[in-house]
Design brief:
With 204 residues, the protein is an all-alpha fold. The protein has seven helices and no strands.
Length: 204
Amino acid sequence: MNYCTAVKLNCWNCKQPLDNTPAFFCRTCEVVQPPEEGTTYFQIMDCDCTFTVDTQKLQKKYLQLQRSLHPDNFSQKSTKEQDYSENQSALVNKAYRTLLKPLSRGLYMLELEGMHIEEGAESGADVKFLMALMEINEALDEAQTVEEASDIGQYTKEKLADLTEQIDAALRKGELQAAKALLTQMKYFANIEEKVKEKLSEFM
């Protein structure tokens, strides 16, 4: 799947062609540019359009972009430049948060393909799976010790790692319906993972 198509644009200030896509600054006059319509989060963060992302590289790119685009750097510039820097900075924040975690990354990749996961149990999870989840949730509610809650947390972590591999394989093959079903499961397990954190905080 290739989400990375590009159209050449010109700088709003000096009218010279912009070299990069996305272009955050004009290389000729060094003025900040507005966000480009249709640019994907993968392009913004300069990473491959795949489910497997190097999160260290992602974080490094995020910090680099925020250093150069932070609105504080443009306090003495024109109103237009201040607005563009705010828009770019907000977009970089959103792109980073979306691509950082496997669930939001996978959902975004489906979104690029025009697919969405609806809220609620009717979104493709089977009854057997939902029953198993109910049992996990009940066990977590009834957990009396840190060890019991931690065991559920460890199981959930392993399930999420397994689902991450399966989703990656499905997306590489272009099996979008399979990826959607797996991401639905991941969504439920990610929810349990958050509940485990809440439960463990109760024991602190």
